[in-house]
Amino acid sequence: MRTPVVPRSGRRSLLPSLLATCLLGAGVAVVGWLLLLMLKGTVVLVAYALGIAMIAVPLLLARRLLTRQPSNERRERAVTIAAVVALGAVLCVVAHLVAQHGWLLIVIPAAAVLLSRLGQAGAVALRRKRRR
């Protein structure tokens, strides 16, 4: 008669697996931090350039865009110019904040997506309410 197979009762040491996990986590953190530093500089530079362009170009072309237009068209164009300039200013502020605090590079896009989703949900709810 054969004896049944019994699993091994000896325990392996926990230290090597914990040490390997900590080393892997530290390696990932270092690589992530280096990528963040390199990416942060590029994002800040592009955001400043785009923000300044969004402020300067519409303001420089405003007179040309607004002359010889009917009043309602002029008003719509002025609102569009103001919106673009405001967006450019927000982009410059965001670039400044990201330059000071790199972790905002992750938080700001996530917040923007969240706000856009909330806005879409609010618009859908408003349309449903108006239909009733």
Question: How do the helices and strands follow one another from N- to C-terminus?
Answer: HHH
Rg computed from alpha carbons, rounded to a whole number of angstroms: 28 Å
- The SS-based structural class is mainly alpha
Biggest pleated sheet: none
Write down the overall mean pLDDT: 87
Give the oligomeric state of the chains in this entry, treating copies of one chain as homo and distinct chains as hetero. single chain
Low-confidence region ranges? none
Please report the distance between the alpha carbons of the first and last residues.
80 Å
The 3D shape can be described as elongated
Tally of separate domains: 1
| Overall number of strands | 0
Count of discrete alpha- or pi-helical segments spanning 4 or more residues: 3
What portion of residues is helical? over 70%
β-strand amount: under 5%
